[in-house]
Every structure is written in C-alpha cells, then in structure tokens.
Design a protein that fits this description.
It is built from no helices and eleven strands. By secondary structure, it is mainly β. It starts with a strand and ends with a strand.
Length: about 120
C-alpha cells in the first residue's frame, strides 16, 4: 500500500524558516501532482502550493514570495521551503499526492497525517 511520511514541522519564531518534507513509498508506479495544504483551528483546509511532475508550480497568494515548493522525482519526495514565517502561518500542514499504483489504470489520491507548524510572535 501507499504511505506518505512527513517531517520538518515544529516551533519557530516569526521571521524564521522551516523546510517540510513528504516522502511517498509503497507500490507506486508514478506520481503526477503533489501539493501542500494547511488547516488552522476553526478554519477550512486550504491549498498552499502544488507542483507537477514536470515542475510547474502554483501558490496561494498568501505565501507567494515566501514559500517554495519542490520535488525529487527519483526519491518520490516533495519539499516546502518556508521563509519569513508569520504567526498566521500556524497550522497543521498536510501532504497530498495524486499517483498511479502498480497494476492500476486509474489515479488515486492520498493524504499524509499532517505535521504541526507553530510560529510564535
């Protein structure tokens, strides 16, 4: 089966930086789109950034110029470099992947269990 393992979350001061990682493993044939989402208490889950296998990226307006999404296709791993962090960035960050499994002709969507990012002022 497919598993997504996240790392890099934690506590950081305003203006600081963190880098999140999401490693996909299991019976994966190929990965198309990968993305990061976040959810703060009382709020809906929102898209942060996405990246295609070819490297095309899309960012939420609130993080443009501060966050950078990237991926290593050979390692099936995605990263989110977060700079100039603000208290409003505090949330649980979730990894999301659209992929094709071995023996399947249709794509499936998977979520990581989330990692907490807390930015103190």
């Amino acid at each position: 089966q497919v598993q997504l393992v996240e790392s890099g979350g934690g506590l950081v001061q305003a203006g600081g930086s963190l880098r999140l990682s999401c490693a996909a493993s299991g019976s994966i044939f190929s990965i198309n789109v990968m993305g990061w989402y976040r959810q703060a208490p009382g709020n809906e889950r929102e898209l942060v950034a996405t990246i295609t296998r070819g490297g095309s990226t899309n960012y939420a307006d609130s993080v443009k110029g501060r966050f950078a999404i990237s991926r290593d296709n050979g390692k099936n791993t995605m990263y989110l470099q977060m700079n100039d962090l603000k208290p409003e960035d505090t949330a649980v960050y979730y990894c999301n992947v659209d992929l094709l499994r071995f023996g399947s002709s249709t794509r499936s969507n998977y979520w990581g269990r989330g990692t907490q990012v807390t930015v103190s002022s």
